């Protein structure tokens, strides 16, 4: 992320769709660890390659500022992939360059 860009760090569940390193379609529950206006970081078990296009969605929970939860759908291109380096963490940290468009819809839950 660029130095002046503000990133929000959290641990929210997300659902990721795309093609893995062998070009097979996959759908995987994942963890979104940070997001900014240009990038997102996700923990994935599926092996993906830089340049791959991924779509993901998550429910943004209700807070004091948000009267109700909502579903956010985003897409982006894999920029780089890093294996887990801390004990107890499995999978890969995937950094995505986000597409400029996104979709917000009411949370069905």
In helices, the fraction of residues equals under 10%
Calculate Rg over CA atoms.
14 Å
Average pLDDT for all residues: 88
Largest sheet: 6 strands, antiparallel, barrel
Shape: globular
Q: Please indicate the percent range of residues in DSSP E strands (runs of 2 or more).
A: over 45%
Low-confidence stretches: none
For the record, give the distance between the C-alpha atoms at the N and C termini, rounded to a whole number: 32 Å
CATH topology: Pnp Oxidase, Chain A
Number of helices: 0
Number of strands: 7
Structure keywords:
single chain; 109 residues; six-stranded antiparallel β-barrel; 7 strands; globular
Summed up:
The protein has 109 residues and is an all-beta fold. It is 0% helix and 57% strand. It has strands spanning 8-19, 25-35, 39-44, 53-60, 70-83, 92-98, 103-106.
């Amino acid at each position: 992320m660029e130095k002046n860009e503000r990133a929000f760090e959290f641990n929210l569940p997300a659902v990721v769709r795309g093609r893995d390193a062998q070009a097979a379609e996959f759908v995987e529950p994942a963890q979104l660890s940070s997001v900014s206006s240009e990038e997102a970081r996700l923990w994935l078990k599926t092996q993906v390659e830089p340049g791959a296009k991924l779509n993901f969605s998550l429910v943004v929970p209700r807070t004091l500022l948000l009267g109700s939860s909502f579903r956010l759908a985003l897409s982006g291109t894999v920029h780089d992939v890093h294996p887990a380096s801390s004990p107890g963490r499995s999978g890969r940290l995937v950094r995505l360059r986000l597409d400029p468009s996104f979709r917000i819809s009411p949370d069905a839950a």
